[in-house]
Write a structure and sequence with these properties.
Length: 192
């Protein structure tokens, strides 16, 4: 574990010199004195994720194999929930890179990264089961498409940030960096 106390200017200097070969998530904590702490393995929930590195443990080959493997389930869920299957493919690619065992730092699980309450809301008993997970996520996304009058970007933003966040900002993509980047990434993979 690496845990160090740095001042911001030192971080900028060192950060520009460190090669991008390092593959570890980076978490940040600012204490009451304004001192900044960084670590790759936080021991407290006070640390917030600021850099997520791309992991290549499964690799592109595995991702493409899984995409092909789950395509019939995605196709069936898209038909059942009246969605474009390519939209489901794009969301799954961004959410989990087609890894059915994916778990986020916030506790989202599976191909469509369902949170416990979302899974419960859409009748998903086993979030790790690809068929249940995809159907639950597709059901939620379909509801969002209806709620936001088939505006794909708003539905995708709501899938990431929650429908209440989109509503709060006047049916616009919320001004959250994570959500805006998420929408851009999904739309970058979506080929209607």
């Amino acid at each position: 574990m690496i845990e160090t106390k740095f001042y911001f200017s030192l971080i900028l200097i060192v950060g520009s010199l460190v090669p991008f070969a390092i593959q570890a998530d980076v978490y940040k904590f600012v204490d009451k004195n304004g001192d900044i702490y960084f670590t790759d393995k936080p021991k407290s929930t006070k640390y917030k994720l600021i850099i997520r590195t791309k992991r290549k443990s499964k690799g592109l080959k595995t991702m493409l194999a899984n995409q092909k493997k789950f395509a019939p389930i995605i196709q069936a869920a898209a038909k059942k929930h009246e969605l474009d299957p390519q939209l489901l493919h794009a969301v799954i690619r961004v959410e989990s890179a087609f890894n059915p065992d994916a778990v986020s730092v916030k506790g989202a699980v599976g191909l469509m990264q369902l949170m416990p309450k979302t899974a419960e809301r859409y009748g998903v008993e086993d979030r790790r089961n690809p068929t249940e997970n995809i159907n639950g996520g597709a059901n939620y996304l379909s509801m969002l498409m209806g709620m936001f009058k088939s505006d794909v970007k708003l539905a995708v933003a709501a899938y990431n940030a929650g429908e209440n966040a989109v509503i709060k900002y006047g049916n616009q993509i919320p001004p959250y960096r994570e959500t805006r980047e998420y929408v851009d990434r999904v739309m970058g993979h979506y080929r209607p």
